[in-house]
Design goal:
This is Helix-turn-helix domain-containing protein. Keywords: DNA-binding, Transcription, Transcription regulation. With about 180 residues, the protein is mainly alpha-helical. The chain has a domain of about 120 residues: Winged helix-like DNA-binding domain superfamily/Winged helix DNA-binding domain (Arc Repressor Mutant, subunit A), CATH 1.10.10. Helix content is about 45%, strand content about 5%. It is built from six helices and five strands. A three-stranded antiparallel β-sheet has the order 2-4-3. The longest helix is centred in the middle third of the chain and has 28 residues. The chain is globular. The mean pLDDT is about 90.
Length: about 180
């Protein structure tokens, strides 16, 4: 499966809204929901969540579940499809669209730092679910690209869609980032 690169400026703008990101996380972690159940879970009002759900649908991040929806009650789930969504290189965007990418990256970094701050307590509580590894090595640019693609293959191989997950499966945050160490 080829990775999906989110290079459309409108898609980036849709992802640069904090509440939309919270809604996506909620749907990925808790499964299907309505604007009402999401509003209750996130402490928002239904009108606000309904608007942002429609925006997420417009840009293909979520979809309505027609067989569960009835009348004004619409059920939503994350869009099925490629799970390997990547950000574009800044130079691939027009200069006026780069602030949206910067905001998506800033929000993602803030979310990752919040997750990272939970790690020591989560590891203490249940090290079978809070795994961690720190690595250091030397790689070529090509070797790093191959390593990254291997990591993505492992995620696809071991990851389950919510509807395929057995009862003992749990939603798990997984992060990988690489930085060169020659700037230290």
């Amino acid at each position: 499966m080829e990775p999906a690169v989110t290079a459309d400026p409108e898609h980036l703008k849709a992802l640069s809204h904090p509440l939309r990101r919270r809604i996506l996380r909620h749907l990925r972690g808790h499964g299907t929901a309505t604007s009402t159940t999401i509003a209750e879970a996130l402490g928002e009002n239904t009108g606000t969540t309904s608007y942002h759900l429609r925006q997420l649908e417009k840009y293909g991040f979520i979809e309505e579940i027609p067989e569960r929806s009835a009348g004004r009650e619409r059920w939503w789930r994350p869009t099925r499809g490629p799970r390997d969504v990547r950000m574009p290189a800044p130079e691939a965007l027009a200069p006026e669209d780069r602030p949206a990418l910067a905001e998506v990256l800033r929000l993602g970094h803030a979310e990752d730092m919040a997750l990272f701050s939970r790690l020591p307590e989560a590891y203490e509580r249940d090290p079978d679910w809070a795994r961690l590894s720190r690595g250091f090595t030397h790689m070529t640019r090509e070797g790093l690209a191959e390593f990254f693609e291997g990591y993505i293959r492992l995620l696809r191989e071991h990851g389950l869609a919510p509807e395929e997950a057995p009862p003992d499966a749990r939603p798990v945050y997984i992060r990988l980032f690489t930085l060169t160490a020659d700037e230290d």
